[in-house]
Amino acid sequence: MDCRMFISSGNRNFNARIYRSLLFASERDVFLENRSHNSGWGIAILSENEEIYWRSSIPIYEYIMPLNIFPERSYAMFHARLASTGEPINGANDSHPYRVQGEETIYIAHNGHVKKEILGKEFNIEFRNKTDTEVLAFILSIMDGDSYTRIRKMIDTVHD
After folding, report:
1. Where would a tag sit more exposed on the chain, N or C end, judged by fewer CB atoms within 10 A?
2. What pLDDT, in 10s, does the model give residues 118-149?
3. Which residues share a beta bridge with 35?
């Protein structure tokens, strides 16, 4: 299935308006015959002075965040999940975005499908109880280089 997500850079009002739009789109998705994105959700909000990172197993439209959570200026990544057939739904751990920490922190959310079985075998990763995005996050965590280099390597690996 296709999840709904956004990544933005803006002021508090701009990010709050996009967030509210995501709430509505996730509860009744007009592009998916009014299906709900009810498999969890997550956020990563970064500003000059703070990081807000949170993942939940409940649908995004059942937990309304206070709009003052947004810093005056921030980068925001929101992801409302609708799990694909066969993908795990084991709580907040399966919600995106994933945070990969190292010298630099990388946040990853993914909308689509990756052949995690092939990647799991190639990188010796147990993939059966992981989402395909979690497999991608693990690959990012074991790659060398700065964030750009690691992301580029991962994209090239997935395309191959």
Report:
1. C
2. 998 888 888 888 888 888 988 888 888 888 99
3. 29
